[in-house]
Structure formats: C-alpha cells, structure tokens
Hints:
Helices cover 48% and strands 7% of the residues. The chain is globular, with a radius of gyration of 14 Å. Helix 2 packs across helix 3. It has helices spanning 6-19, 29-44, 54-65, and strands at 70-72, 85-87. The chain has one domain: Rossmann fold. By secondary structure, the protein is mainly alpha-helical.
Amino acid sequence: MASRDDATRARRLSTLTVASRYTVLAPDRIVASVWSQMMTEIAKAGRSMPKSRVNDAWIAATARMHDLPVITQDAGFTAFPGVQVIRV
Length: 88
C-alpha cells in the first residue's frame, strides 16, 4: 500500500479489502483464446494495445471469459471490448 499520500494509501487498502472477498481466477487456454479474440477486435477497430496494458488485457480476458466484471480504480479497462468494469 506504499504511497506518500494518505488518501491514496487509504484507497488502496480499501480496494485490497474489497478484492480479498473474491476468488482469484488464473488464466488458462480458454482465457488465452479470449485474449486473442479481444486483441483481434481491438486491431479491427483500428486501435493498438500499448505494451503497458498487456497485463491488463489478460485480466480483462479472464473476466470476459468468466462473464465477470473487473473491479478497479483504473479507467483504462473500458478499452477492452465485452468487459464490464466497476470503478471503485
């Protein structure tokens, strides 16, 4: 929760508290296929995926495959097609 800012530290701790209530889902072959489909959809839409967002794409693909939302503070997840995002 490292941060020089008390508000940021509190927000991160709150996020961790909420996230700890959920089961962690690991990527598998099916998620890899969904990831590939998402990357194709993004490319067909004329957009590119910055290298800094590749790990986020795996999270988004995992959520999409399981038909679950991504719970995040990161507005960038709205760039992934077919993924519901819940901002906290």
